Amino acid sequence: MIRVKVVIPNAGMDRTTLDQREIMLSSAVSRDTRIAVDCIKEGPRAIESSVDEVLAAPEVLKEVIRAKEDGFDAVVIYCFSDPGLHAARQLVDIPVIGPGEAALALAGMMGRKFSLITTLQENVSRVAMRIKESGWERLELVSVRSLDMGVLDLRTSPDVTIGRLMEASGKAIHEDGADMIILGCLGLAGYGVPVQARYAVPVIDPAFTSVAMAELFAKLSLRHSKIAFPLSNLSVDF
């Protein structure tokens, strides 16, 4: 049995919400793969800035190490910004998957021009810069469109969120020339289904993509290159 640990870099989430995430994400993996979801113990309640990323990263690293010690086969850092991703890969010898990176990898096989849908307008420049620094030259980022909603608001009123997502995606396709959409926040998990049905373009959902990729890594016994990500001898205190 494969066990995947999902670490949400937001503090303060209740167990009921975390259990709901486990049920939702389990739909993306095989029946005999187990998904366990936890959030960081301290840190920001949402990742909405570069400052939030930096503050969350140390707590993410602690949870990644704990997952390795608890016998998990792979870890997903459950945020499109992938906070602490490369550092985490230098602390453990199990696969550590970042949803943002996983979504871009999949996008490279799905199309050529994409639009990314993010939360707040303030995030547009940060996300665009992150995409350009990611090294996916074969993909063209045609736009970053925001929903003008905070991370914590996305699942409060699903109909409102899906309505805004539908509108932003339509503009990305018809006005910006996108041939696929990437959901730029994992709070949008599952909301891309009606968008894909309406516009008939791929909508890449990093939440499901990342857990499926984590399972794939574990099934194929794949590990990150320790030439690229040499193991660190740094100890992290819990």
Share in β-strands: 15-25%
CATH topology of the largest domain: Rossmann fold
* Mean pLDDT reading: 94
Q: Low-confidence runs (pLDDT<50, min 5 residues)?
A: none
Number of domain units? 2
Helix content: 25-40%
As an assembly, this protein is single chain
Going by CATH, the architecture of the largest domain would be 3-Layer(aba) Sandwich
Give the topology.
Elements: E1 2-8, H1 15-26, E2 33-39, H2 50-69, E3 74-77, H3 85-89, E4 96-97, H4 99-107, E5 113-118, H5 124-132, E6 140-146, H6 158-174, E7 180-183, H7 193-199, E8 203-204, H8 206-219
Parallel strand pairs: 1-2, 1-3, 3-4, 5-6, 5-7, 7-8
Helix pairs in contact: 4-8
What does this structure look like?
This protein is α/β, with parallel strands linked by helices and 238 residues long. The protein has 2 domains: 2-98 and 209-219, Rossmann fold, CATH 3.40.50; 101-205, 3-Layer(aba) Sandwich (Rossmann fold), CATH 3.40.50. The chain has 8 helices and 8 strands; from the N terminus they run βαβαβαβαβαβαβαβα. The chain has helices at 15-26, 50-69, 85-89, 99-107, 124-132, 158-174, 193-199, 206-219, and strands at 2-8, 33-39, 74-77, 96-97, 113-118, 140-146, 180-183, 203-204. The strands form 2 sheets. Strands 2-1-3-4 form a 4-stranded parallel β-sheet, with helices on both faces. A 4-stranded parallel β-sheet has the order 6-5-7-8, with helices on both faces. Strand 5 (113-118), helix 5 and strand 6 form a beta-alpha-beta unit. The chain is globular, with a radius of gyration of 17 Å. It starts with a strand and ends in a 19-residue tail after the last helix.
